[in-house]
Specification:
It is a single chain. By secondary structure, the chain is α/β, with parallel strands linked by helices. The protein folds into 2 domains: 200 residues, no CATH class; 72 residues. 39% of the residues lie in helices and 22% in strands. The protein has 7 helices and 11 strands. It has a 9-stranded mixed beta sheet with strand order 1-10-9-8-2-3-4-7-11, with helices on both faces. Strand 2, helix 2 and strand 3 form a beta-alpha-beta unit. Helix 3 packs antiparallel against helix 4. The radius of gyration is 24 Å and the shape is globular. The protein starts with a helix and ends with a strand.
Length: 316
């Protein structure tokens, strides 16, 4: 009986502490979301051909080998983004560019952008048509729209297959290009047209126990204008209403304010491919939970990828 009472008291205490953290995170979250700067998210204008971008991650900080590989593979196309610079955990900057890009590859990439836009336009028409033509009660397209729906679906499917085919062709040709990697410093790196800078938001000691915040600033280095900004305030999973069922994550992606996705910069540089972003959420989990069973180094090693063919690596 005594053991049961002790267990019950311990359970009640644990629930009370957890509930107080949830309440505290929501209260402090509302406070920080109401503070300047406001609005938390804005895009003054978008960019189709940035030509050169410097990404500076000061949260973890820096891009490791695997993350550099992912950024190069997904975003450096040698046409609309010709040069990419990334800061590293060692305090250096790595600059990536392709040497002697042939005109045939440039034409292929441009054809790829046109095919992608055509597919996106036709896919939008397809989605809008579905909303209009679908009969929810009978779970099918209404009979009067049968021919029109078939035509729209065919055009959307053809555009998708064309885009997919050109994308694969670009990827096959891209690995044949020679990639130049130059390691330098921020002070000595070549001038980039744009800088994408991510910093951790400074919170009070109490708030840091239940919240995490970061901000992304995108600057046109030629005019020094901040063309886009996003600040996220997020609950830690340890202070969220729902636990981290997936495991190994530090904060709840759906923030209390700000644009939730880490791919916010892809909304600014509209021609960059979506779908890749270094997993700071998991890295931060291991950074602030050093005694977990799986060390961060083991996880990161499992994520390693081989860089595309390299012409040379220089240290300046």
């Amino acid at each position: 009986m005594k053991k049961s009472i002790i267990f019950l008291l311990a359970l009640i205490m644990s629930i009370t502490i957890y509930a107080s953290d949830v309440i505290l995170s929501n209260t402090l979250g509302a406070y920080y979301c109401a503070q300047e700067p406001n609005p938390k998210t804005y895009i003054r204008h978008t960019v189709e051909e940035p030509i050169s971008i410097y990404w500076e991650d000061n949260v973890y900080p820096g891009f490791d080998e695997a993350e550099c590989s992912g950024m190069v593979a997904n975003y450096l196309d040698g046409v609309r983004l010709k040069t990419m610079a990334l800061n590293t955990p060692e305090g250096k900057v790595r600059v990536y560019s392709y040497a002697n890009v042939p005109q045939s590859f440039i034409d292929l990439v441009k054809a790829g952008y046109a095919a992608k836009k055509d597919w996106q336009d036709k896919d939008k028409i397809h989605q809008d048509a579905f909303k209009k033509m679908y009969d929810k009660s009978n779970h099918k397209i209404r009979d009067e729209f049968s021919d029109e729906w078939k035509e729209i679906t065919t055009k959307s499917g053809d555009a998708y297959r064309k885009n997919n085919a050109i994308t694969k062709q670009i990827e096959a040709e891209k690995v044949k290009l020679d990639l130049i990697i130059t390691e330098t410093t921020k002070e000595q790196m070549p001038q980039m047209n744009y800088t994408v800078k991510t910093d951790e938001v400074h919170l009070s000691d109490l708030a840091r126990k239940v919240l995490f915040g970061d901000e992304m600033t995108i600057t046109d280095n030629r005019t020094h204008e901040v063309i886009a900004y996003n600040r996220r305030i997020m609950q830690l999973f340890s202070a969220a209403l729902l636990p981290d069922f997936a495991g190994g994550r530090y904060y709840v992606q759906e923030g209390l304010c700000g644009h939730a996705s880490k791919l916010f910069d892809r909304n600014v540089f509209t021609t960059l491919r979506r779908g890749y972003s270094p997993d700071d959420n998991k890295k931060l989990f291991y950074k602030y939970n050093p005694c977990v069973t799986l060390p961060c180094s083991i996880y990161l090693k499992s994520q390693q990828k081989t860089l595309p063919q390299t012409l040379k690596i220089e240290d300046k």
